[in-house]
Amino acid sequence: MRQLVIIPSLVLLTCAQAQVNGYARITNVSGTTFSLGAASEVGAPFQAGKQVVIMQMQDDVIGSNTGNNSSFGDLSNILQAGRYQVRNITSVSRDAFGAPVGMVVDAALTIPFNFGANSRLQAITLELLGGGGNFTTTAAITALPWNGDIGGVVAVQVQGTFTIAHSITADAVGFRGGARDVTNSGSCDLTTFISAVSDRYAWKGEGIYRNTNANWVAAKGKILNGGGGGNEHNGGGGGGGNYTAGGTAGPGWSCGSGSAGGLGGISLSGHIAADRIFMGGGGGGGEGNNNVSTNGGNGGGIILIKANTIRTTGTCTGLRISADGASVGNAGNDGGGGGGAGGSIIVHADQFQLGASCPLLVRANGGNGGRVNDGATHGAGGGGGQGAVVFSAMVPSSNITVETNNGAGGCNNSSNPCNSQALSASGSNGGGIIQGSSGPLPVELLSFQAIPVNARVALTWSTATELHNAFFTVERSADGEVWAGLQEVQGAGTSLHVNEYRVFDEHPLPGLSYYRLRQTDLDGTERSYPMVSVRIAASSDVLVAFPNPATDLVKLVHGAVVDDVSLLIVDASGRAVNIPMVNEGAYQLLDVSQLPAGQYMAVFEDGSTIRRARFVVQH
């Protein structure tokens, strides 16, 4: 069975394009535990130790904008649509057939993601290519096409140098275009914005709201960033939207001054940043009665790339990272479909080494609407909106081209030059190129060590990258279970360089003890990293109370002692107090849960020395 899971992925790597990610719909979240629905592990399995991107693909954002008018499909509240976080997988549960049905991560989510009927929440493996070192592509990389539950995203990271020798694409794998209509012939319908499936209206394109109402699937109203479908007679489909709004479609056959064409999907530019991105909206379908209309184009998907250095080398042409929306082919004497909007690309890299003989193209362009191949004016498709390309640093100055272009509206007839054209997407080309914006990709810890140095312990660690890192807390434990903060160290905030840290424990615990790092983001999110151990030779004059302050239990660490010992606990007034205690060999376990809050002194005598340690009780 293991080979049956692995072999398809290996075979794909030798083909023209390969999926490298695993995908799963998240149906419920309870703390750090996720319930999973539909899943695909063709590209990669979900496994403990991997990182996973949790992304809100769709959300219930339509609100009350549901009337049969031009406001249908407007944005009410963006909620969590487009937001994402990264977590580490600690365990995966599977059903009897091996499909993933549950997952546990290392820290609770801080975004209140939604997974109701009008929302879709997805987990995507953030694949570490190169095993923590450098990596060079061996085949083109692409995404599983979005199917309404999962897909549409490429997410990869390389801790060293990422040499891109093959294209990485998410073209036309985003929100799906609307289906065309092919039958019936009647007069122009200028006023229907929503409809059930009918032979008078083409379907709307898909967008960031998941529609479950059968009475809204068709007709000229957009649905958020999904373009509206064409109305009777021969109206074109509206273009999908993303950074810019999609273009309104051509009017249709003999519609006079009115229009049966679909409206373009909305712009989401006011919400786009490195921590909130969207797939491109699908174009609306074209309406027809002669079976020569065309479907709307799919939007572009999402690409997340994180690397220390991105490199190209050698001689090449056509190398690209792209999330283009789909363009639509010619219709006959019917309506043309709207172009899909460009998707979104995040490039999180500190350095670029791009060879002059192997330039890199990064683009998220909108698709063109379908034109009409007939001498009489009908309804062409509107152009798809441009997508977004977000760089964590500045765009390199050489050997790279970055594009976010609007799709063009199709020509409403076969004239050349065109004398009647559907609208292109709105806004200026290049508006979706965003520089110097970092997102929620996590702190990347390279090492953590605890090293005895004479009577001290040196604690050193290094990070490859940090994002929104407020501070580290060095924690210490006598048993690996009960931890206490030892020292806080300010983080680098957001950094794409290697950072080195070093602190000392001036008074380490005698014998075997443990240290770990806890990292806190600017938004309060915390994550703990694996512990390390160290052994310090016990001294005859060492007595350490741990943790300190304490609420219920105190470990009084003293190391090896002779048989004749005594222990006295006194309060701040010098009065002896009686508390439960257990001799654990190298330490005494004190139950201080019933003591009043305040300062106390432990006086420990083993026949040859007297040792004292102060501790604080707080409740």
Structure, briefly:
With 619 residues, the protein is mainly beta. It contains one helix and 32 strands. It has one helix spanning 2-12; strands at 17-19, 23-30, 33-40, 51-58, 84-94, 100-105, 120-128, 135-136, 140-142, 153-163, 168-169, 302-312, 320-322, 344-354, 360-363, 388-391, 400-403, 433-434, 444-453, 456-477, 484-495, 499-505, 511-521, 526-528, 532-536, 544-546, 553-557, 566-571, 581-583, 587-591, 598-605, 610-617.
The biggest sheet amounts to:
7 strands, antiparallel
Proportion in β-strands:
35-45%
Helix percentage = under 10%
Mean pLDDT reading? 90
Radius of gyration: 31 Å
Estimate the global geometry from the Cα principal axes: elongated
Number of helices: 1
**Any idea how many domains?**
3
> What is the end-to-end distance?
54 Å
Low-confidence stretches: 1-15
Count of β-strands: 32
Q: Structural class, from secondary structure content? A: mainly beta
